[in-house]
Amino acid sequence: MAGQILIADDLSLNRTVLRGKLTSACYRTLTANGGVSALKLVHEHRPDLVLLDYHMPDMDGLAVCQALRADRSTRDIPVILFSANADHAHRLNALAAGADDFMAKPLDEAYLLGRIRSLLRNVARRDEWRNHPNTALQAGLAESAEPFAMRPDMALVTGRAEAREGWLSSMAAIWPDARWHDITVPAALGLDDPRKSPDVFVITPDAMDRAGLHVIAELRSRAATRHAEICLILPPAARADGAMALDLGAADILPLPLDRAETRLRLEKIISRKRCADAQRRALENQLGLAAFDPLTGLHNRSHALAEFSRAVAQKNAEFALLLIDLDRFKDINDQHGHNTGDEVLRQVAQRMRQDLRHGDILCRYGGEEFLLAMPDADMSVARLVAERLCARVGDHPYILRDGLAKLRVTASVGISVHDAPGRALTTDILKRLIGASDMALRAAKHAGRNRVVSAQSAVA
Questions:
Q1: Start and end of every Response regulatory domain (predicted)?
Q2: Whole-angstrom distance, CA of residue 245 vs CA of residue 230
């Protein structure tokens, strides 16, 4: 079944009706007859969402919401407050207390269920991060603690040109610190760079009249705009459209006439959630980067480099070369100067070798003091030329250590193998044999006196 929802209302009939509607929608429910029991049940069961009546005799819904937001363990549980009194003060107080939405009784069932589905989607995404076995990915949750460090970029999607200035003036007055600009529906759907996508698309009624609700699904489906949040400005008569919009992926509905304080609170909550999601994605990208690169040298690690090389060769179906590069007598450096010095030499060697790579060459730290250079579209003459340059780059100048005084001379030996059968697909077996041939050539270079290049037989495969 779907998520668990707590219903808190002091009237038994209201609880029964709501419970029936949610059970029919396949939600599990808990019920509380007051604010105090609601708080107790939240801490015991950790529901996915809480529905709170604003007016309860022992502890009203406003106080319950404030208590949930003040507690670190419950502050992220979505809360919807409802009341028979839907005046401005009630709505504003509910949102200011941290409620995700406020609804007037009698509750619109279609809109309520749409809002619940929207909020529970956010809960599911959040829990994926919190339950991930790699706890470093949870850094995004902490990173979003200051959601407005940068000015929010807000795109006002308009339909009629004559209405744009009025909409921009209204929204800029509501949130003057945000960066507001107008955009048409075709221009929004034509964005092809995620870096140019705004934080939030705010879609006006005249844009909806021209484009229809499908614009939400289109924005959600496109790579450049799928991470942007979307909210709609809708008149009260279009409440049914609001429920559909939430199901299509809108983050919230801004009801007309726009109330400055309420609209600002809703937009701030949207931006806060967007900042959290962005931080989580950055954390994931960082983790993926750590998995692909050697942290000491900044080069590709072996497994990632070989995978990249295999893809590059498969695309070009051409000859290629493998160079195995090993630093000479590196153990002596570690033994005489310590492993910190050895690490510093490896970092500087990697920096030097990068300077001689062609576009498309893939250099990785193969292990210890050994490096592998994979060169698509390279025959033996090109590979030998590059190998000779690498040896010179590594050995021609001393390495200055961190104290700025000690200098070390370091040389490298290189073994080369070449695959010159471009019509034959690169298999794991061929790759292993080529690396083995480069290794044999490298050992021959060591036996011949080091600081030199030796090639294996060119036709290895």
A1: 4-120
A2: 9
User: Cα dihedral angle (67, 71, 73, 75), rounded to 10 degrees?
Assistant: 60
Token representation of residue 33: 């007859």
According to the model, what pLDDT value does residue 96 have? Answer: 95
Non-local CB neighbours of 313 within 8 Å, separated by 6+ positions: 320, 376, 426
**Catalytic one among 146, 369, 370, 388?**
369
Convert the pLDDT of each residue in 160-177 to its tens digit. Answer: 888 899 999 999 999 999
Q: In this predicted model, which residue has the larger pLDDT, 298 or 251?
A: 251
Active site residue 388: no
- State the chain's mean pLDDT as an integer: 88
For residues 290-312, average pLDDT: 81
Alpha-carbon span 18 to 29, nearest angstrom: 9
Alpha-helical segments (H) within 222-337:
239-248, 260-292, 302-316, 330-337
**Straight-line distance from the first to the last Cα atom of the chain, in angstroms, rounded to the nearest whole number:** 57
Give CA 203 to chain center in angstroms. 25
Instruction: Return all residues near 254 (Cβ < 8 A) that are at least 6 apart.
Output: 202, 231, 232, 233, 234, 263, 266, 267
* C-alpha to C-alpha distance for 287 and 294, rounded to whole angstroms: 12
Contact 79, 95 (CB under 8 A): no
Nearest to 283 by CA among 152, 134, 77: 134
β-strand pairing of 370-376 with 407-408: unpaired
pTM beyond 0.90: no
Residues 228 and 219 sit within 8 Å (Cβ to Cβ): yes
Domains of the chain (ranges plus CATH)? 1-131 (3.40.50.2300), 132-285 (3.40.50.2300), 300-455 (3.30.70.270)
pLDDT at 5 over 70: yes
- DSSP assignment of 173-185 equals HH-TTSEEEEEEH
How far is 252 from 233, CA to CA, in rounded Å? 9
Question: What pLDDT is recorded for position 149?
Answer: 55
Closest among 147, 262, 266, 125 to 202, alpha carbons compared: 266
Are 38 and 50 a contacting pair, CB within 8 Å? yes
